Amino acid sequence: MEAHNAPDRLLHPLVRVGPRGSGQFRRASWDEALDQIAAALTQVRSQHGPQAVLSLASAGCTGALHGTHGLLTRFLHLFGGCTELTSNYSNGAASFVLPYLYGDAWRQSGFDAATLQVSQMIILWGANVLETRQGTEVPMRLMEAKERGAQIVVIDPRRSDTVAQAATWWLPCRPGSDAALMLAVLHVLFSENLADRAFMQAHAVGMDALERHVLGLDGGPARTPEWAAPLCGLPAEEIARFARAYAAAKPAALFPGYSIQRVFAGEDTYRLTAALQIATANFGVLGGSTGSINSRLPAPRVGSLPIQRRPHTPSLPILRWPDAVLQGRSGGYPSDLHAIYALGGNFVNQGADVHKNCAAFAAVDFAVTHEMFLTPTARWCDVVLPAAGPLEKEDIGIPWLGNYLLYKSQIVPPPGEVRTDYDIFCALAERLGFGSEFSQGRSAAEWVELFIQESEIPDPQDFRRTGIYLAPNQERTGLAEFSANPQRHPLPTPSGKVEIASPRYAADTGFPAVPTYQPPPADPRFPLLLLTPKSRYRTHSQGSNLPAVRQRADDALEMHPADAAARGLREGDRVRLFNPNGAARLRLRLNAEMISGIVVLPEGIWFELDENGEDLAGSANLFTSTQGTAPAAACIMHAVGVEVAAG
Ligand SMILES: Nc1nc2c(c(=O)[nH]1)N[C@H]1C(S)=C(S)[C@@H](COP(=O)(O)OP(=O)(O)OC[C@H]3O[C@@H](n4cnc5c(=O)[nH]c(N)nc54)[C@H](O)[C@@H]3O)O[C@H]1N2
Ligand SMILES: Nc1nc2c(c(=O)[nH]1)N[C@H]1C(S)=C(S)[C@@H](COP(=O)(O)OP(=O)(O)OC[C@H]3O[C@@H](n4cnc5c(=O)[nH]c(N)nc54)[C@H](O)[C@@H]3O)O[C@H]1N2
Ligand SMILES: [Mo]
């Protein structure tokens, strides 16, 4: 409701009058704004082809009908096509490796939160679920598990709320060192004969190659706890103790956060989480997990907006969108881009490398978005249409994790001249000559009705009345059938098993077949490792402009007192945070409840650049780059090298 009533809520269409990015707009009528968009898109399509339009679609709104990603995709494919983004900022590295591990069954490799009821140990590996949730039921199940005496291990460089409230064991490891810690745990399992060899044999290929690697029989050092200790900043003895406790706890659920793959070589952390769950025979077992992304289980069947993708649509990894705009074909990207259609995201602020993102928006002929607020991204557009927010439209909600659907009624009507994205696209499609194809003659309410008819929901009236449909099975364990009988239910991989050491992976990517720890490149001028976690008060950049959220939000830079003392800095000082990509001036907050050698700046603050291009607000992506991980080209948003000085 804060967002609905906000004084800076966009209430009518805006057309740019000042330079791009200046934020200077004038009020326009819907007709004028829609005509301008239709004319600009037509111009780009006729001059350069539809692929010159870049679809910047994100998940600002999810839902069967009003999902921003689906709406923009449907619209642009009917328009004639576009250039699309693949993957996402959330779990790009994990999503890249999972099909190599599990084949297509990676879509079934998660678990329902209720299965945590029977876990003896829950390992939250870089997961801060009391603040990020990742499934509405997860925090409750975690606290239940703690109360009944389950061991809850949290591996996180800082004392998050999850560490403070749920952990029975906190392992504060150095960011980006998780793969080293995982190898050392495997070393203890193999060398102390704690690994379940029969389970490994039956369920995986390549565990033998991994064992040789871990034991140092393939030319490298043995990955012992002593080897890992200086990399992780944890005592070798504690690493060994953790490995033994993990081997003894049955079943143990390993719940990897996405943070551990949003780092250099993040791909291999998710190959190793699978290896750990296999070595300990927790893979696909009730109360265990596969070590995959927790949300990879199908939601109940429900209709959704159909999208007829055009064949041969050019695409590029999401991380590289500004490079693709700036370099086009000459840089090896699939198209020369002349227009940007952004929807449901604040890409200029949330994508890596804010300066490059601004340059990309400056470079196109035309940029448009629909927004609730004049975000940094909206400021870089030529036309901004006022969009209805999630509370202002009826829809069916599909959860992050869990076997249920939500019926979301309209809570309040859209204010001012605000329209829903669906209605906006209907009006635009009309102007572009494909109105009836886009709407199929249906109102939003008629689509929602159709989706319910197409669903497995037995009693639609009850669904609308209660707001929820719970599918019969609430305690699903991903890949349970394979786990119980791998011969009868093989995985759709070449071997029929989980492919831990994967020759296919090696052939496709040029990276080692065996998952391993790769030391990140280090620059002694930028010795501090920046973490940019989620704020507990905000969803990404939403609310950065709302005073009620801003007051509570933590937009100071956190530093360990020892690192501050070494730099002559004190609590409350104004400091300058910088690296080769950018700089920001921030207030310093000392925090002894995290390891030294890191600094923490929650992601999502809208940047406010001064005349030198330095940020006065603290947007985390001033410091990140579009280089990313390899081979996935996924974002690196933790363990980014920076330095801090008095400022
Ligand atoms: N409140 C809130 N919740 C959210 C979101 C939000 O914006 N706000 N966003 C949602 C979305 S889209 C996503 S993708 C998920 C994201 O969920 P995650 O990606 O898992 O979240 P992060 O906050 O990046 O990181 C989780 C924890 O990992 C720690 N960490 C950082 N780097 C490392 C590392 O190298 N190793 C280890 N072991 N730990 C590390 C951080 O200190 C943090 O406490 O959250 C979802 N939930
Ligand atoms: N440094 C750093 N950067 C990160 C991350 C990190 O951990 N560190 N996390 C990354 C991750 S995991 C993610 S998922 C991305 C998320 O990045 P984005 O997808 O950009 O997410 P938001 O900032 O939530 O932006 C959503 C926008 O959609 C608008 N919106 C909401 N509802 C609607 C609607 O119904 N219609 C329309 N038209 N607009 C709507 C909101 O006003 C908001 O401006 O950020 C990534 N960026
Ligand atoms: Mo995300």
Supply the key terms:
647 residues, alpha/beta, Rossmann fold, Dimethylsulfoxide Reductase, domain 2, Barwin-like endoglucanases, 3 domains, six-stranded mixed beta sheet, six-stranded mixed beta barrel, 33% helix, globular, binds ligand MGD, binds molybdenum atom
Explain what the structure shows.
The protein is of the alpha/beta class and about 650 residues long. The protein has three domains: about 15-85 and about 305-395 and about 410-465, Rossmann fold (3-Layer(aba) Sandwich), CATH 3.40.50; about 90-295 and about 475-510, Dimethylsulfoxide Reductase, domain 2 (3-Layer(aba) Sandwich), CATH 3.40.228.10; about 530-645, Barwin-like endoglucanases. The protein has 25 helices and 23 strands. Strands 2-1-13-12-11-3 form a six-stranded mixed beta sheet. A six-stranded mixed barrel has the order 18-22-19-21-20-23. A four-stranded parallel beta sheet has the order 7-6-5-9, with helices on both faces. β12, α17 and β13 form a beta-alpha-beta unit. The chain is globular and about 75 Å long. The two termini are about 40 Å apart. The mean pLDDT is about 95. The structure holds ligand MGD (2 copies) and molybdenum atom.
Q: Helix segment count?
A: 25
| CATH topology name of the largest domain | Dimethylsulfoxide Reductase, domain 2
- Category by helix and strand content: alpha/beta
- Specify the CATH homologous superfamily of the largest domain: Dimethylsulfoxide Reductase, domain 2
Low-confidence stretches: none
Radius of gyration: 25 Å
Spatial shape: globular
Largest sheet: 6 strands, mixed
